[in-house]
Write a structure and sequence with these properties.
Layout (H helix, E strand, L loop, with lengths): L8 H9 L6 H26 L4 H10 L3 H12 L4 H26 L6 H6 L3 H8 L4 H33 L10 H10 L6 H17 L7 H22 L1
Helix pairs in contact: 2-3, 2-4, 2-7, 2-8, 3-8, 4-5, 4-9, 5-7, 5-11, 7-8, 10-11
């Protein structure tokens, strides 16, 4: 056989899907779901440690379903902040999902009937897996595999983590009373690439430290978000000029 002979379309299709019949987008989505879903265990435990019961913690994963916002919510509650302050902090961090939604609507062109479901499954991981593909079919498969996969795994492991956290009892006895903040920093740190993100993170951290003794618990994180937005606008306006 001539080794330089071009592959037939059938050959291309089989190499793309692999022996198990899974496309690259699906394989990536499943691996993302497994990795991210396991982290739901920590959120479940931290939700209970913050004072929520098992079902309240599980409801956050079912209804809010965006990791950064969920960790911010329980972090404010754990610090003694009000429900409104926790809700505001979570909402500010969830604004990015609205931007993702607009981009995904233009990219995937979904039917109107499924837009509400897509909106709920629009997270960093589903957006990233869809945007990483070059074929329209793979873009859709990437979004749905990552979105549904993470949703199922995240909620399952949230429940397991909440059950385990409830069994531990007093979180302070195990040093978990500050773990929500540590977990949130763990989510944030890998994203700090480049001068702008680091500058914004430092400005927000300084603002938080300054405001902690001056305002009620939970409010510093809201004010830090305002500072972050201000720093971002100032830096970009300076570049435009």
């Amino acid at each position: 056989m001539d080794l330089t002979q071009r592959q037939t379309p059938t050959d291309d299709r089989s190499s793309a899907t692999g022996s198990a019949g899974l496309t690259p987008a699906i394989r990536m989505g499943l691996s993302i779901a497994a990795a991210v879903g396991l982290y739901g265990t920590s959120f479940g435990a931290l939700g209970v440690a913050a004072g929520l019961d098992v079902w309240q913690t599980c409801a956050l994963s079912l209804l809010m379903f965006t990791g950064g916002s969920q960790f911010a919510f329980v972090g404010v509650i754990a610090g003694g902040g009000s429900g409104m302050a926790a809700y505001t902090a979570a909402t500010l961090l969830g604004v990015r999902n609205g931007i993702y939604g607009a981009e995904l609507k233009a990219l995937l062109r979904p039917r109107a009937a499924i837009i509400p479901l897509m909106a709920h499954l629009t997270i960093d991981e589903s957006m990233a897996n869809a945007a990483a593909q070059t074929d329209p079919g793979e873009e859709r498969r990437g979004f749905w595999t990552a979105g549904i996969g993470v949703f199922v795994a995240w909620n399952l492991f949230t429940w397991l983590g909440a059950i385990a956290g409830e069994a531990l009892g007093d979180p302070g006895r195990w040093g978990l009373d500050g773990a929500a903040v540590a977990a949130f920093l763990g989510l944030l740190w890998p994203r700090l690439h480049g001068r702008d993100p680091i500058t914004i993170a430092v400005a927000s951290a300084v603002a938080t430290i300054v405001f902690i003794p001056l305002v009620p618990p939970g409010v510093p994180i809201v004010l830090a978000a305002v500072v972050a937005a201000g720093v971002h606008l100032i830096r970009h306006r300076g570049r435009d000029h």
